[in-house]
Amino acid sequence: MKAMILAAGLGTRLRPLTDQRPKALVEIGGKTLLEINIRRLKEAGFNEIIINAHHHARQIIDFVEKNQAFGLRIAFSVEEQLLETGGGVKKARWFFEDCDAFLVHNVDVLTDMDYTNLFKNLKERRALACLAVRQRDTQRYLLFDDRLVLGGWQNIRSGERRIMVEHNRPLKPYSFMGVQVLSSAIFDFFPAETKFSLIEAYLQLAAQKQKVCAVIEQQARWIDVGKKDSLLEAERLFADWLKK
Questions:
Q1: In sequence order, what DSSP letters do the residues of 14-83 get, joined into one string?
Q2: Is the pLDDT of residue 136 over 90?
């Protein structure tokens, strides 16, 4: 069971908390986002994790080493320049060479969803990626058909709408939850560039009629801790985790 925690971002929405430390080490209830997610993944059965890092990368490495890697095998992928989510995963390809599928988890997302649903759907539907989604108010949405296969993207603020697959099935908007399972075969379909977003890669896969599917996780607890005003809400929502 392998996973990747995306932790290379600058954490601009959390400034000034992230001026002198990485977003991954921002705390709620006395525990860092990174520690909470590592322990959560460990409880879910993951025993090997790679963390990408850029902003104050040394602090992340030192934190993990100080905690004896929480009893797991933890590797690091340090990015000299930000490679975005897709480029970050691509750079870590070597870590996943011996597995069929792996989890990718944003460090600023906390959730108690059942990750096995993503792995199960990826395998049963023979998809290259399976994304956790839900219905919630946001600015950007991924568009899925009635079979929960990706067909497009839209930004309701700008009015931009990209339809990648032309068919008669209506497309319904869902919000991406920052958690996904990828088939190791996806590396063969990534663009040649070193810097790109996973969302853009998924849209291009959809245009190539390569399956990117979704699982709706409406009942799971979930929060994006990317903004300062969400820290207190996260502390309330996951109070049970912080007591462990």
A1: GTTTTSSS-GGG-EETTEEHHHHHHHHHHHTT--EEEEEE-TTHHHHHHHHHHTGGGGSEEEEEE-SS--
A2: yes
